[in-house]
Hints:
By secondary structure, this protein is mainly α. It is about 75% helix and about 0% strand. α2 crosses α3 and α14 runs antiparallel to α16 (about 310-330).
Amino acid sequence: MASEFGALSLVPPLLAIVLAVVTRRAMLSLFIGIWVGAIIIVNEVSFVGGFHFEPTSPGVAQMFDWVINSIGNSTFNAKILVFTLLIGAGIALIWQLGGAFAITRFATRRIDSHRRAGITTWLLGLLWNFDDYANNAIVGSSMKDIADEMKMSREKLAYILDSTAAPMATIGLSSWVAFEIGLIHTQYEELGIQGETPTAATTFLQSIPFNMYAILALAMVGIIVITQRDFGEMLTAENRAQQTGNVIREDAQPLQSIKEDLGEPALENAPLRMFVLPVFALVSVVIAGAVITGYAPGRTPVEMFENTDVAGALVWGSFAMVATGIVLSQVHGAMSLDETMETVLDGFGTMLPAVSILVLAWSIGSVATALETGAYVTAYAEGVVSPLMLPVVIFLISAFISLAIGTSWGTMSIMTPIVVPMAWSIGGESSQLIAMAVGAMFSGAIFGDNCSPISDTTVLASTFSGSDHIDHVRTQMYYAGTVLIATAVMYLLYGLTNINPLILLPVGVVVLVALVYLFSEWDAKRKNVPSKPAAKRQSRPDVTSDD
């Protein structure tokens, strides 16, 4: 059923996105988008059946209801906020204990170039695949100072984090997989085919090769970090970092500024354990917590994933990180207990910009739900769906919805009840068409998650890389758009030829390599700058950064 608000349902999220990109003021843009949505709702503004507008309220009460409910009515959101604050405290303790400099000294003896820093970050992101939030936090915190040493721009680091974390989570051993299988399972029950072949889990596995955006996005990161070729605003950012040592743009507003907020570390020449032990506590407790909350006698691995409390495990792990940092500070006499507690509070403070944007991003997601944005977009496109066009249409609709509402999980929740029955009907009850449709839908959802300034994963990538949020969005859009084009072409080829996706994916990678080479050469000549950075770092790089 279409949204009763019609095209007006698109206004708040798209307004927030456009304002964020144009003004570089993410919080203000999100706030305006939420307020406009509230005005539409409370004044019953509508274009359906003719223009209708009854001005009765400025919408302030409704606006703050959405903001408050995004925290108070969602246990998951509340846990993510606590996790984010605790991670900030843990990072602050590591900084004061000298752990950041310790890991940099250790790594730079092995990671001696810009390329190796990028490849290492990418590989760590591929390995840490069970949760996108933890991926951003752990990999970003581990690699930020090393990336600074190699004169990698914060925008580039944020891109590697963001375009690895969510795409990898959607196909790896993650909480995402449990969520996705659960959505398919529900639709199979509705269609009366659950228990037959294929099962929801089997359909998910069959859908992975069709999740082309996620796979090609991961390949794109690899291509970029290995070839060292950049284009668009990322080329400008990388040349700035290489030539001046400024890893962030002048006047940028990074979501996390450890050095500016905390000053110089309390310990000089700290041992490596000041970094390793807190991070090990975080990783080990998160993994153990996820296993413990999902385990029950007789449960299959899939059922364990479906029942695990990843958000809770993240909170426990981040608390373990903070507790370990406190113990280390006392055992080594680095700080008094009062100074340690002040560092914890200062660490909370470093995360307040990120927490604020997260809350506003969730709130504008509530606006999109209330206005039925997803239903409107889907109903508008229903008339053009055919078996040949089905993959690319599902992909583009899902991408647009995800871009507009800023959440891949929300997009999956909106689209799965539409996509699975439609594919079952159009395909003559063919399971292969369901797998294709589900994969295309997941692909579109991940694109918006990567590209939208109102996506929580994008916010956290900016946070843990220390990047200005809108700078991250603006630089990443060129790369995500390139992958979008390659993916759409692959879906069109599949619809026209029915070629196995395992054959199309390598073709897609070749297309990406060609596009990266062409775009980087053209943009470098246009801007009269090098198309790639120097292969090796200088012996004593003059790095200027905010932290």
